[in-house]
Amino acid sequence: MTEKNQDPQSVGDVLDRLKELGEEAGQDKAKLGDAVEAMGHRAYGPFFIIFPLIDISPVGGIPGLPTAMAVVMVLLALQLLFGRKDLWLPGFLANRGLKGEKLVKVADKMRPVAKWLDRWFHGRLPALTKGPMIKIAAVAIIALCTTVPPLELLPFASTLPMVAILSFGLALLVRDGLLMVIACILSVAAIGGGLGWFFGRGGQGGGG
Fold this sequence. Notes:
globular, 10 helices, mainly alpha, two-stranded antiparallel sheet
């Protein structure tokens, strides 16, 4: 059993705890509230990793799921922005979740990705993961989440904003300032691409 007295230190740790949570739930639903307990009440980073990983897995193809995850991430990012120490979810969200079996499958499928991420990203320039950068990350995550609902209309179109959010989550988890800068660059590209698609679609609709 994974030691839960401390926050996860790597993506592998995050997946270990997800898998344990899924195995404990089995045929029942693994709830978000239970995930908060498993990850640690102050562990913002893991949730900005978990949701994007789910989005890029086959489970992410469930209609409406990316938007639902984006809503939860906005709520978490707002708490991060305003400096809330402990994660909080309202009851109607805390009781949401996935079947334990599906969560185990997601954790297993994402294991190679986790190994790659843990190999390449670690605590470089940790000063860039503190203070104002935390608030910049929170604002960027909120902006990225707003692009997800319209992009969900296109297959895999929400992948880029989700990858940017995952980068922020990983940077927060392992205190990697270089990755934080990369995440900011990815955010600009993702938001710009999302806006371009939205207004381009609007222009086509208006021209029709």
